[in-house]
Write a structure and sequence with these properties.
- The chain is of the alpha/beta class.
- About 35% of the residues lie in helices and about 15% in strands.
- The protein has a 6-stranded mixed beta sheet, with helices on both faces.
- The chain is built from 22 helices and 18 strands.
- It has 3 domains: about 220 residues, Rossmann fold (3-Layer(aba) Sandwich), CATH 3.40.50; about 130 residues, D-Maltodextrin-Binding Protein, domain 2 (3-Layer(aba) Sandwich); about 190 residues, 3-Layer(aba) Sandwich (D-Maltodextrin-Binding Protein, domain 2).
- Helix 17 packs parallel to helix 22 and helix 20 packs parallel to helix 21.
- It is globular.
- The longest helix has 15 residues.
Length: about 600
């Protein structure tokens, strides 16, 4: 219930822990946006023309467009910049690198690449793992895009999936002498004592960070790894193995410890960095499933992995160590796939650029950022001093057959941790402004994006809907349209579709009210969250102050909270305030300053559940 105004004015300016500020770009770049590390996000049209304005060739040159998974995008941009200007078959070549999340690119290719939505159409696709190519082959095998990607594709670098843990936590489990794996994660997740089992009650419950396997390679590989761990196999996973009751119970048990999901590990690593800055590293997350090289990035104070930001932040007080699951793990093998629609001159350029990437000099460059070579050889940075082990992994798992892999994702959707989510949408008058070139208003585009994202919620998710502007319900700036509950997607769609823009923006009061609403309905067995979209800034002169709002949202380290995932929609959105709201609740802020990006941004936001 929203507190009276007099109570608001008496609230103290309690200190709050800056628990998350993500750096990097959202979808384009690194996709998420958390301003504390100085990044900026933008979804644009799903990719950015990284070499625009810096072309080495003239009009007669060949432009090779490469869609690259986010964790290596900036490094490949650097390499492409050094490569561009070379001649192939007598023609000058420019390489343009566009960042595109692996799962998002796979889905775009499977449905038919739409430049208006997905950005420039690539000639080469280099996701983080061959698993994405397997999924693409499964989804287009009977359609007109069958054969879009070859069955075998060369590798440009490798990095195994690891379970990254704060070093004191790993040592409490017996690392490095003891082999640790997904079965240990399951034991901790199921133990009501949590870390008290290992004489550390101050660390609370075991909390796992794992990305959504529909979007992120680390999430996909971690999910596959859990299914293998449940069966004791290292290859030839079958449909029967996936559907077995014992397997499902194992995977469901692991998933119950999830903090929340997401589309990139950068969410968790940047959150952890800011928690570490505040002396609360052990309270945010107990383990994160990431690539080995991301452990090195984090321990250098550079969770984005961007070469340009290396050395600009202090190393963490509490470093991470890489645990190579004893049951085995998968490699992110970073395949290099030339798409079938690529023209002959570009195919020649693609072959030459691949040769360049696999050359000793460029392999050394990959090694400088803790990638293993394309042959899997560890470089100088893969050392125990850096929390890594060049002798691991002892067991390498194989990617399941395409049909089985598709079944794994469907099974995970049934077993994942459920969510209690309140959608809060701004309907102020500015949302009625037309977006140039679309023939639609900002609200029209936002409504369509929200409706398109609804199928991401499952039957066990509880979802509700509010709208807000000013004085929507008496003196309240918000109005409830659909109470939080399960199985109400048709009603949600109808209510969203009927929204009309009018009035000012009651941001602060609505933010607090929505937070308290979900807090009163939170479940220990669910991800409790608010998705808060606005295109403006607070215009309610009688509302709670920002300082008091943040104090109300703050929880002590280790306490469970309602996570507020905010979307800054349009150029006039108060991005700085939304970042503070998200960081205070251990969530994520998304930047959709280009209204045309809102569909992809909304999809990214819902991937947290």
């Amino acid at each position: 219930m929203y507190p009276p105004q007099q109570q608001k004015r008496r609230r103290s300016f309690a200190p709050f822990i800056v628990a998350i500020i993500l750096a990097g770009a959202l979808i384009v770049g690194l996709r998420m946006f958390f301003g504390g590390t100085g990044g900026t996000a933008g979804s644009g049209a799903g990719g950015d023309d990284g070499a625009a304005g810096r072309r080495a060739c003239g009009d007669g040159g060949v432009t090779l467009t490469v869609a690259v998974s986010s964790e290596k995008a900036e490094l490949l941009r650097k390499m492409a910049g050094a490569y561009s200007g070379r001649e192939v078959d007598g023609r000058c070549v420019d390489v343009v690198v566009n960042s595109k999340a692996s799962g998002e690119a796979m889905q775009a290719l499977a449905r038919g690449w739409d430049k208006r939505v997905d950005g420039p159409r690539p000639d080469v696709w280099t996701p983080a793992s061959t698993g994405w190519i397997s999924l693409l082959q499964q989804r287009v095998e009977d359609g007109d895009r069958a054969g879009l990607v070859a069955a075998e594709n060369p590798t440009i670098a490798k990095s195994p999936l690891v379970i990254a843990m704060p070093e004191p936590m790993a040592k409490a489990l017996g690392w490095p002498a003891k082999k640790i794996g997904w079965s240990d994660v399951l034991d901790l997740a199921n133990d009501p004592k949590g870390w008290a089992k290992y004489d550390h009650p101050e660390w609370g419950a075991f909390r796992l960070g794992k990305t959504n396997p529909n979007f992120s390679t680390s999430g996909l590989n971690a999910t596959i790894g859990a299914y293998f761990a449940a069966t004791g196999l290292s290859g030839d996973l079958s449909d029967g193995d996936v559907s077995a009751g014992r397997t499902r119970d194992f995977v469901k048990g692991v998933e119950r410890s999830i903090v929340h999901y997401g589309d990139t590990t950068l969410t968790f690593l940047s959150n952890l960095q800011n928690a570490d800055d505040s002396g609360a590293a052990m309270s945010y997350v107990s383990a994160v499933a990431v690539e080995e090289k991301s452990v090195w990035d984090y321990n250098q104070g550079n969770p984005t992995g961007d070469p340009a930001t290396l050395g600009k932040h202090a190393k963490p007080k509490v470093p991470l160590v890489a645990i190579y699951p004893k049951e085995g793990t998968l490699f992110s093998d970073h395949p290099y796939a030339v798409l079938s629609w690529t023209e002959d001159d570009k195919k020649a350029a693609a072959a030459d650029f691949l040769k360049y990437l696999q050359s000793p000099d460029q392999q050394d460059e990959f090694g400088k950022y803790a990638f293993r070579s394309f042959e899997g050889e560890p470089g100088k940075l893969i050392t125990k001093a850096n929390g890594l082990d060049p002798k691991e992994p002892a067991t390498t798992l194989s990617v399941p057959a395409p049909g089985v892999l598709d079944r794994v994702l469907k099974s995970w959707a049934e077993l994942r941790k459920p969510a209690n989510v309140l959608l809060v949408l701004d309907v102020s008058g500015s949302m009625g402004a037309e977006v140039p070139g679309t023939g639609k208003t900002k609200l029209d585009l936002a409504k369509q994006a929200a409706i398109n994202a609804l199928p991401q919620f499952g039957p066990n998710d509880s979802v509700g809907l509010w709208m807000f502007s000013l004085k929507q319900d008496g003196n309240k700036d918000h109005r409830e349209l659909v109470p939080m509950g399960r199985g109400n997607q048709s009603r949600l769609k109808s209510r969203i579709d009927g929204l009309i823009a009018n009035g000012g923006t009651g941001l602060y009061d609505t933010a607090l009210a929505s937070y308290e609403h979900v807090l009163q309905r939170q479940s220990d067995d669910a991800i409790n969250a608010v998705v808060f979209l606005t295109d403006g800034r607070n215009e309610d002169n009688n509302s709670i102050s920002l300082d008091d709002l943040l104090a109300e949202l703050h929880k002590e380290a280790g306490q469970e909270t309602v996570r507020m995932f905010t979307i800054a929609y349009g150029a006039d959105a108060d991005l700085g305030v939304l970042r503070q709201i998200s960081q205070t609740t251990d969530a994520a802020a998304y930047d959709s300053r280009k209204p045309g990006s809102i569909d992809q941004v909304f999809t990214a936001v819902i991937s947290n559940f």
